[in-house]
What does this fold into?
Amino acid sequence: MNQYHHSGRFSGLLIAAAIMLASCADQAAPNDSTTPSAKAQRIAAMKQVTDQHSFARPEEARIVHLDWSARIDFDARTISGTATYDIETAADAQRIVFDTHELTIEGVSVDGQPAEFSLGDAQPFLGRPLSIPISTGAKKVAIQYTSDPGADALLWVEAQGDKAPFLFTQSQAILARTWIPVQDSPGIRFSYDADVQVPEGLMALMSAENPTAMNPDGRYSFKMEQPIPAYLLALAAGQVEYRDVGERCAVYAVPELIDAAAYEFGEMEQLLLAAEELYGTYAWDRYDLLILPAAFPFGGMENPRLTFATPTIIAGDRSLVALVAHELAHSWSGNLVTNATWDDFWLNEGFTVYFEQRIMEAVYGRETSEMLATLSYQGLVDEVDAIQDLNPDDTHLKLHLQGRNPDDGMTAIAYDKGYFFIRLMEETVGRARFDAWLSDYFATYAFKGMDTERFVDYLKTTLLSDPTTLAAVNLDAWIYGPGLPPNCPSVSSPRIQNVDAALAAWEAGETSTADLPWNDWVYQERYRFLSNLADDTSVERMTELDNAWEIGATGNNEILFAWMEQAVRSGYQPAYPRLESFLIEVGRRKFLTPLYRAMKETDQMDMALAIYKQARPGYHAVATGTMDELLGWE
It folds into this structure.
């Protein structure tokens, strides 16, 4: 038994109670006049911070449960369906408003009767508001619709040879509205049931209770009892197989990857147990992982019960499982306690990076977690420098994204500045006290939204109630100020320091390539060495490294990425064929942006545009939106 065990058990009981309360609320009649106090509480809960990225008016009427019936058409590249919502209304409600984008609305009914509706003018990236008149006492709204073939959330991967087609969604941040009409705000939660028809020979999966075997008729039913925000609504369909890797953990992958995936993520149950030991009972029943096509624009997406993950984290040696730890941590920080708006994104990601590091420390040791933290700090410093030159306000933890796409806030600031702020609080008050506080925070706000201002008030009355401690942390500088405050925690990794010393000696000609301990280094050390090479490293020296270690043939995509970026900046052309094939095969934005930017900054735009022309049709809209702007693509 360790020092965190009791607080974890206690918070688990509170979270379980919160689940029961949420379930009871879902079962109650939304307008039950026999329970006025319960109704008053629900209406009071409808009042929340304004979300500038949603047309919804939850203080007037909001969704609480979704029944979704849909058909997936790969030929037409559309989803046709009916979204039927249970709703709650204020006493004076006159309408309910949904977010839509790239949808054709074919009909609406209220409590089973055809109803009028109106669509407002389209706004960039926000889409169009769908307004439906309702009367006091309305309980259900049904919307029949079809998605556009080019809907931004959806990527339709075509069949190739003996490989079946594949569809996946990416709803975060505000793309759920492109495949289902919904109140697309992280502060609005709903449970759901779904019936989905896909072509025979494919399996459908959602962020819900999932099948473990293929249904011959292509029909699948789903249930998500815990309430979630729209950005966690997820769907995939493909020829995938299921493999257990623990009591509550499994992987799904296409046949050619299922064995590799089952091995790579065979320690997921250990990660889950470590997370529970830290901060309480896992609230989502199962934690499974789906390996998506390489075109997936992110490393992972924390869809409840079913994390979506890129195949680029399959390294063959379990060296990149920190990403799984990160998505698992979201089951508490993000999925359970959720940023109320995208201006508060750091509340999701800062806590998650902190929790990820604690899981990695618990399972793989402090040495490993500190190497990861050191790499995060390097990336954060670089990003702060880059953003400061463009818009210093974007280095604040609390963002100001009104009139902007919330994707603009998905930088290292929310993740890593958030992490170091939370680490500072832990180091200031002590780990034991901090862990007890964080467990209580997750339990207290389970299945609720949290905005920055309420969080600051909560901090000041709980963890940082002592004026001396509050002053030592300096909340305002971290949350509302630019850059990195001077009290940023320092990270210490002797192994990374040794890598830096070896690199300095190698670049100074004091040691040879043959003397570098590459074969003894783990992934983090190899990445540090390659990512810190000087931009003007000569072709001759790059050749030495390549001949010694055949870096372009590595199975670790983080190392490969660092090598290819350096190859571009050094003009090492033997790596260019691998660079081209990588950019055509892989759509992960974390890799694409630096590689295309490196070509742009080294006057190799002809190569960048030639590759992008080939690769762009296979990228998700999340990636093309960024690359189009970077490369001036029209």
Summary: Residues 275 and 359 are 6 Å apart (CA to CA). The mean pLDDT is 92. DSSP finds 20 helices and 21 strands in the chain.
